[in-house]
Design goal:
The protein is built from 7 helices and no strands. By secondary structure, it is an all-alpha fold.
Length: 176
Amino acid sequence: MADFTPITVPVVSEPISYFRPSPLSAQFTALLPVLSAHIEAERDLAHVDRWDVAFIDWLAEAEQTRADLEAALNTLCETEVQRREDKPLLRMAMLTRMMLASEDAQEFLQLHSLPQRMPSMFRCAGDHPVAARTNLLLSEVLIRLDALASLPDYLDPIEVEAEAPVADSLAFAPAL
């Protein structure tokens, strides 16, 4: 008699789970190239002389990409959350919108440091495919936000040094 040898994997009878995009996650995915285009347009603008003939075109392109980015963020922030994995995506979109609207370098730095200070607000718990895909999207946006912070229009190094607290200030005084 022959021995019984199963030839199928034991998990083959389990239901297949994969990532199904919600409207919010689909719009968030579409946000990534828009954010990248804005960063590239701002980089081009940062390295051009204002007296260059092409400056007007690069300025118009940068303004258009910023308008496209703001429109995409506004649409994304108005989208309804359908599952709990959408909440970190919505928070990241709101953070990005607030970073773009920030008035000074100090506010921009505080907003930029929020994902590091409160990681649970900008991450999705779990090891299922939806959480993995959501965390991948969030990490991609964080990379782009770091690139945005490297641009002089958003975070001018001279302005940051001027607004940095002095070591002798009360902010560094020991608590009593």
